[in-house]
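Chain A, query sequence.
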Amino acid sequence: MSTESGRRVVVTGATGNVGTSLVRALAEDTHVASVRGLARRIPEWFPAKTEWSAVDLAREDTDLVREFEGADAVVHLAWAFQPTHDPAVTWRTNVLGSIRVFEAVAAAKVPALVHASSVGAYSPGPKDRAVDESWPTHGWPGAAYTREKAYLERALDSFQREHPGTRVVRMRPAFLFKKESASEQRRIFGGKFLPGPLLRPDLLPVLPDIPGLRVQALHTDDAAHAYRLAVHGEAHGAYNLAAEPPVDAAVLSELLKARTVRLPRVAARSAIAAAWGLHLLPASPQLFDAVLRLPLMDCSRARDELGWRPERTALEVLQEFLVGLRRGDGADTEPLRGRKVG
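Chain A, predicted structure.
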């Protein structure tokens, strides 16, 4: 467990969007003695105080207890977004793999578990006001991502009843972006052949204004800061994480200097469904349905209890991300490998 020199922290999904930001933050933290990063593939990146283990959460024979022994906290970030055409595959990693993480935390007697939940765990909610962490977390049943996030909320309810001595924190961030994640997120949601250089104001004179498409964004480094605070303190329960302002067609049109054109939901969904059915678009129409129904989140609890505030506005986050898309930015890990198309 922790020594005079600091805490020992294990991070699953350590080479992904959030994982790389959190590992960097923990490596720079004088109160952290060591970081063990778990990922399917060992990266070429070696931050201070960090060691790597090759771990695939989808495998039933993975010895997570050995990986977690002696840790003061486990931060569970690992998540698979694809393939959306075969949700049984993501279920094995995201749900069954997460349950194995929870069971190993208990078996290794790790004092704290910080779990990456999501705004996607929330039941459909309002777009004209923000909801706090008491809003129901039943997700949107049609989409695998929201269904899996909601299922794990129930799994953690059971875990907390069975292991009251373990401090459990559930982070529910908005959509997370940074320039280093641009190539990965383009491949996951837009397809590997979507040309990033096309996302320039002079080439996007018109943006669709779809009713209900109003969401929140956050810089990944700001989310990682909240995770780091949760590792150290006595925080427990759920925390919403998002930056202002909420993002809709009006905000994007100002950012991209484009005019908006009203597009009915049915037309937008039909186009997405057709592209997804032809395997031209990785993001499913069911995920589009879920996004239209996500509530806006009130982040007062994170501010008051964690002392957390995002350093960047949502507009700054999107500006950085768009630059990353155009340049094909990435990082020295397999999930974040940069690639420019077009």
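The longest strand covers residues 32-39. The longest helix spans residues 87-107.
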